[in-house]
Amino acid sequence: MKIIFYIIILCLISPTNLIAQIIDSTSADYFNEIGVVKAREGKLEEAIISFTNAININPKEVDSRINRGIIYYKIGSRDSACMDWNYASLVCDTAAIDLINKHCDSTFFIANQMPQFPGGEEKLFMFLRDIKYPSEAKINRISGRIYLSIIIKSTGEISDIKVLRGLGFGTEEESIRVLKLMPNWIPGIICNKPVKMRYNIPINFNYK
Question: pLDDT at position 37, please?
Answer without folding.
Answer: 96
